[in-house]
Design brief:
The structure holds 2 protein chains of 2 kinds.
Chain A: E1 2-5, E2 8-11, H1 17-24, E3 35-39, E4 42-43, E5 59-67
Parallel strand pairs in A: 1-5
Antiparallel strand pairs in A: 1-2, 3-4, 3-5
Chain B: E1 6-8, E2 11-13, E3 17-20, H1 30-37, E4 41-48, H2 57-63, E5 67-70, H3 78-92, E6 96-99, H4 112-124, E7 128-133, H5 137-146, E8 150-153, H6 167-176, E9 183-185, H7 191-199, E10 204-207, H8 209-212, H9 217-237
Parallel strand pairs in B: 3-4, 3-10, 4-5, 6-7, 7-8, 9-10
Antiparallel strand pairs in B: 1-2
The chains are: A mainly beta, B alpha/beta.
Chain lengths: 69, 258
């Protein structure tokens, strides 16, 4: 399945959102605090990450706080 | 003099220096800057995760018990600013947002038309909006009537270090905006700029580049923190009026016949 994560085209066998998050951002395995996800422009609440199924061509934005302001 | 508290959106703070974390050369010095400034609020931007990032600014600020103020920097429309604010709320578990809607790349001046639209939408979504705005008093009043939690007029363009370029505009806002704090944001270049902003009656200052891009960020952080405090004290003390001609400080009566 082809998806896009933060602008990068990725081919993956995973179907759950949480496995995509862990694969893309391994540090998140220790702590999911401070990050948020939008898929195809819609925010997916943290409570749904474990059960959310990714579909072909989904565009995922994985964001966190960084220096700014 | 007894330290006084000030309030933003129902929360009280002692330090009137809000730290902008933009421009930090590394996250390693953030701890030291926070210690010398005693800042209680720090801003962050919302961006794509860097998968190789080792230190997390979220963790450093949380460990130091700093109130995290996410911003919408990088947004050029109300629509984008609202979307980024929603991501900020989801990731950081806060309904505070420093709302920035930028007008153009060269000046980074606020687009106040889009700002008003975004502020209204976000306030209706229960956000506490701290609005980065121009020194236009009428826009400040419009923001106030929408119900923002703080007015944040710029001293001069972001990162310019030009100090209080439109000081009279800032004074009008400070004098006319009574119900919410006025936080002078952007353009502070050095300690005296922060002191001056506080002397004219601002509730607080937000400083990023002047600290993070100084040759020695930690020493500059201390200088600006002390200047912020000194400026506030001077405001509370009440300065003498400026006059074009001298007013003798020694008595002119009982002068001996020389």
């Amino acid at each position: 399945m082809n998806i896009t994560v933060n602008g990068n085209q990725i081919n993956t066998d995973s179907t759950t959102l949480i496995s995509i998050i862990y694969a893309y951002y391994p540090n998140s395995k220790e702590n999911l605090k401070g990050i948020a996800i939008a898929i195809n422009g819609e925010i997916v609440p943290k409570s749904e990450w474990n059960s959310y199924n990714i579909r072909e061509n989904d565009t995922i934005e994985l964001i966190s706080a960084t220096q700014g302001g | 003099m007894k330290s006084e508290l000030f309030e933003i959106a129902g929360e009280t703070f002692t330090s009137r220096l809000i730290l902008g974390t933009g421009g930090l050369s590394s996250l390693e010095i953030l701890d030291s800057i926070l210690k010398v400034t005693s800042s209680e609020i720090a801003t962050v931007a919302i961006r794509r995760v860097d998968p190789n990032q080792k230190l997390s600014i979220f963790n450093i600020l949380s460990d130091n018990k700093i109130k995290i103020l996410p911003n919408t920097a990088g947004c050029y429309s109300a629509t984008d600013a609202v979307k980024l604010a929603l991501l900020a709320r989801e990731s950081l578990d806060t309904n505070w947002i420093k709302l920035e809607v930028i007008g153009d790349d060269k000046t980074l001046l606020p687009d106040t038309v889009e700002l008003l639209k975004a502020a209204e939408t976000l306030i209706n979504m229960d956000f506490k909006v701290l609005a980065y705005t121009s020194t236009d008093l009428i826009i400040a009043k419009r923001l106030m009537s929408l119900g923002v939690s703080a007015i944040m007029p710029l001293a001069s363009p972001i990162g310019s270090g030009m100090g209080l370029e439109h000081i009279n505009g800032l004074i009008r806002i400070v004098e006319e905006v009574e119900t919410v704090p006025v936080i002078v944001d952007a353009g502070i270049g050095t300690a005296s700029d922060a002191a001056l902003a506080m002397e004219i009656g601002a509730s607080a200052v937000l400083v990023a580049s002047a600290i993070t891009k100084a040759v020695d960020s930690i020493v500059m952080a201390e200088a600006i923190a002390k200047a912020t405090e000194a400026g506030r004290l001077a405001y509370r003390a009440g300065r003498i009026p400026k006059q074009l001609y001298a007013v003798p400080s020694s008595s002119s009566s009982d002068m001996p016949n020389l």
